[in-house]
Known about the structure:
Number of helices: 5
Strand order of the largest sheet: 2-1-5-6-7-4-3
Largest sheet: 7 strands, antiparallel
Structural class: alpha+beta
Shape: globular
Distance between the termini: 64 Å
Low-confidence stretches: 15-34
Helix content: 40-55%
CATH architecture: Roll
Strand content: 25-35%
CATH superfamily: Electron Transport, Fmn-binding Protein, Chain A
Number of domains: 1
Mean pLDDT: 79
Order of helices and strands: HHEEEEHEEHHE
CATH topology: Pnp Oxidase, Chain A
Radius of gyration: 18 Å
Amino acid sequence: MHQRVLANLGLCILAAAHTGCMTAFAAFQPENVGGETIVLTTTDADRESHERVLSPIDYDGRLFVAANHWPRAWYHRALENPDVSVTRNETTDYRAVPVSEEERERLLDESGFPLVAYVFTGFAPRQFLRLDPR
């Protein structure tokens, strides 16, 4: 019984450490780690605007964004109301389009997301949106 308690305690410590790492990783939004960022503005069902800072993925002459973490309300809002705006140097209107499986595979190969990032994000599956100018 003593071994069972120690094993459970070890699992709890491991789970708490992993949760802490995921929280710390999520706290480092793109504006905190440098590099180019954009502000994606989505609208919810009540027509309230929400802003999210993201790292853009410029690929094959098109603009993409990725949902890399489990909390991805912005991604679901963009799916529900695909008329979004992006502020880079100026604000431009876009239509958020879910990518095809083929596009997703290419983006996974090209966009470079290290294994350690998957660990810190709790192995959240990366989902991409293509942003088509309106």
